[in-house]
Each structure stands twice: as C-alpha cells, then as structure tokens.
Amino acid sequence: MTDSATEERLVTGYAGRLLVAVSVGWLAIQAGRLVLSPSLPAVKADLGISDAQAGFAFTLLWGLYALLQYPSGRLSDALSRKTLLASGLALVVVGFGALASAPNYALFLLGAAVVGAGAGLYPTAARALVSDLYTEKRGRAFGLHTASGDVGGVASAGLAALVLAVATWRWAFLPVVAVALAILVSLHLWSREAYVFERRSLDVRDTADRLLRGSRFRWLLVAYTLYAFTWQATAAFLPTFLEVGKQFDPLVAQVAFGVLFGVGAVVKPTAGTLSDRLPRRTITVGALLLGAVSLAGVVLADSPVASVAAVVAFAAGLMAFPPVMQSYLMDAFPDDSAGGDLGAMRTVYIGIGALGPTYVGTVATAADYRVAFWGLVVALLASAALVAVTT
C-alpha cells in the first residue's frame, strides 16, 4: 500500500516500482503462454502428438487459468497481494521450465497445468495491487498494466520467429523463465507486504450474492462476458477468417493478428489515462461501439488493405475497454473484497468467453465465417447497450 503522502508516480517511487514489476511479470507470462501458438507445429512434430492432444494441452492451461481467478483475488484480499503474486510467479517459472524440458506428452501436460495454475494466481492479485497503489491515476495505471500483456503478445511472435529460425521451440521459454524469476526476486525485495500463509475460506456464497443480487454488477458481468466472448473468438479465428474465408494471402492474416496486440499496447494506456479525466461510461460505451462498427467493416471489406485498416479500428475499440471497465469496477467494489470480486467476475467471463472459438468454429462449419462474425458484432452492440443503461 502507498503512504498517503506519497505521490502516485507511474515509474519511480514505491508505487511506480511495483507497477513496473507486476506489469513486466504479466508481460512475461503472456509471452510464454502465447508463444505456444506459433510454435505448435514444431511442438507437435517433436513430441509426436496430434491436433487433439495439442488442443487438450491448451484447454488444460486456459481452463486452470480461468478457474483460479476467483481464488487468487479472494486470497489476495484475505492474505496479501505479495503472497499470491510470488506464488504465481514461482509456479510459472517451474511450469515453463517443465515445458522447455518435457521429453514426452505426459510431462508436457504437467508443465501446461503448472503454467495454467501460476498464470491463474497472478493477474487478479496484480490488478488488485494496482488498485491499492493508485486512486487519482488508477485508470492510467490500469492502462499501462493491461497494455503490458499486449506487449507480451507482440513479443511472443518475435520470440517464436527468432527461436525457430536458430534453435528449437524449447529455447523460447528460457527468456520467459529468466524474466519471471527476476520479477519474483524484485517483488520479494521491494514489496512492503508480508508473506501470509493461512487457511482461509473462499466465501463463494457471499461473493456470488454480492455480485448477482445487485442488478448493476450482474448486468456488467453479462456485458463483460459478451466482450470476452468476442475477444477470444476473434483472437482464435481472425487469421483463419481472412486467409480461408476471404482468400487473402497468409501474410495479411499474420499482419492483422499482430495488429490486435500492437494496437492494444498503445490504446490501453491512452484509454486508461482518458478515463481518469472523462466519465468511464462514455469511454467504455464508445469503445464497444467502435469495436462493433469496425468488426462489421472487417466482415464487409473486400480488399486486404481495407480489412487490415478495419482491424486497426476494431483493435482500438476492443482494447480500450478492459482498463477503463476494470478501473470502474475497482472503484465500485467494497475495499475489503475488491480482489475477490474482480477475480469472481474474471472466472466467469473468461470461462464463458472461452466458448467464443467454439461458437465461431461451429457456425463457420454450418454456414460460413461471415455469419459467425456478424454474431460477434451483435454481441458487442449488446454489451455496449448493457454498459450504457447500467453504469
């Protein structure tokens, strides 16, 4: 926690050092998780596994990540932020080390499970810590922190390309382990909090009652779920839609995918800063509407240039939403349960949002990609309407 007299500096001072540390930690976790996707063909060939086996490894990693969001937030409230952050980073280091050295599929799955658990413990506690550290600059701080994950996404693409060109896929995890370990040591040295290891109740019923009985949080959860559904569906199928559905060159699909993360790295801190000065509802509704209109443009565009331009606008709208909405939620949650409340919402919207790729794949098989993506446009419009009438 910051002393009341301490300025809310974003890079220096106690708050700034911790913000940089937890953000770089999140960058490393995201880079490590996302580097698996471009490395997958090499992983499958090396381990001799099928697409189904590879898919199960991803499901295990992302499923544990979603499941542990609430316990992480709740325990960071009851114990300390430092306890959960350090535990998450320690598991991430062990998990990525296991992935890098796995001689067979069984140990690869074990590494994926450990990474999923560590990644699940980290982000909600990190966001709760950012909320502890900042009040006047909370939106800006959330913007910088969440943008670090997008930088990790961009880094994963470059890391995979470099490593696969000169070595094997296993080497891609070594810099991730090194950075995560350095952040673990930094948090241990810099944080003023103590480590607390005690048995605590998760109070699932109380949290559910608080979030579901109040109409404001209930409908905001629905709105965030629609957003997450769209984001995960787009992240999974946008390149395939452009390459297979529109018959564009694979390079166009790769550029468009990279744009999602590159734009996010710029837009998130910008949107967070604006939300400290303008009404958060105005920014969130505007971001969702921009995302919906631009995604419609992606569907309608008939040239690579127009499609990539529409993706840029879509990414700007989509990526402006999380830091502003999370700042709004942390403003609204009770102080003594903010981490747990955010974690519970993250468990729900990430978990249900994971059905987005299944939706697109199913609709594309039964009809085509355009029909599936029109459904995502509707989801964003519904999310915007819910935020507009609820906040």
Automatic annotation (TrEMBL):
Its main location: membrane. InterPro entries: MFS (IPR011701), MFS_dom (IPR020846), MFS_trans_sf (IPR036259), MFS_Transporters (IPR050171). It is a multi-pass membrane protein. The chain crosses the membrane at residues 12-32, 52-71, 83-102, 108-130, 142-165, 171-190, 219-239, 283-301, 307-325, 346-365, 371-389. GO terms for cellular component: plasma membrane. Residues 18-391 form the Major facilitator superfamily (MFS) profile domain. Keywords: Cell membrane, Membrane, Transmembrane, Transmembrane helix, Transport. It is found in: Cell membrane. PROSITE patterns: MFS. This is MFS transporter. It comes from Halobacterium litoreum. The lineage of its organism: Archaea, Methanobacteriati, Methanobacteriota, Stenosarchaea group, Halobacteria.
